[in-house]
Hints:
This protein has 341 residues and is an alpha/beta fold. It has helices at residues 31-34, 38-52, 67-76, 104-118, 137-150, 163-176, 199-206, 234-237, 245-262, 266-275, 290-297, 306-315, 334-340, and strands at 3-5, 12-14, 16-19, 56-58, 84-89, 123-128, 153-159, 181-187, 209-213, 225-226, 229-230, 282-285. An 8-stranded parallel barrel has the order 3-4-5-6-7-8-9-12, surrounded by 6 helices. Keywords: Oxidoreductase. It comes from Limimaricola cinnabarinus LL-001.
Amino acid sequence: MKYKQLGHTGLYVSELTLGTMTFDDEGGSYAGLMGATGQDLATRMVDLSIEAGINIFDTANVYSSGVSEEMLGRALGGRRKDMLIATKLASTLTTGPNDFGTSRLAVMREVEGSLSRLGTDYIDLYQVHSFDYTTPLEETLRALDDLVRQGKVRYIGLSNFAGWQIAKADGLARQLGTERFASAQSYYSLAGRELERDVIPAVRDLGLGTFIWSPLASGFLSGKYTRNGEAAGRRAKFEFPPVDKDQGFDIIDVLAQIAEAKTASVAQVALAWLLHKPGVTSVIVGARKEEQLIDNLGASDIALGDDEMARLDEVSALKPEYPGYLPQMRRGDSLFARRNG
């Protein structure tokens, strides 16, 4: 297992993170679509992850209505002091006028709930789950800064922000002198490379780390889906995130060829591609079965050569969009020189 520095901080995280969205006792909420683990399997997955070198675990207040946090806390037990916990706020399953969002009221209320459910007195990485259009960023940043100063939170992160929202949040934090976001958690996979348009350039320029969710596009890149017929799974019930299946099956064809040559699984190669991409700090892996997790953990051992990366890059390439298809202008470039000569 490799460890990478988290953005502009002094914190080091494993290149794989265990995601706990499937941690649930009864299969409620979104976990029900993927298959709930129950406490015994959840603890086993935490054990396997720690044995493999993982040092960070990702959850959220909304996962299984808080049950995921409770189960993660129990699974870590006395090992919590040596591990990193990342959780999130903003989304809730209740509908009160002040329940959703990142107001000071919500931030202070939700952190206390997460601390209680996790059985800890601090959260290592507290992440804003989505951009709140109704709360001024200043209010959210000052509330999060207070949590850091109180010692309830060590670092703060954001999730599912657009590039301009990340840039605005970072610039405003610098202006206010508050704690800066250390990381961005976003969707990124061979079947969904939109992150490369704005978010990856933004976080690399600003010095934020990244956590990648749904790296297998909710199982589409697991190897069980083919042109000849799609296996039963979560995508049969809920096709999210959306994928272009025509291009997606072309991607799977190349993944299968590389996997066969390396005696690896299709999923391992898809995860390894992400681990080789610039701007990626840690890839979140989750599972509903022990064997799935064991297979995913093996991605750390897969080395992809330049030719293999190029083949995967080519088959999964994004279609050019404005202004990305315009030439980049730099002083010294021949095009720039000709136009200004």
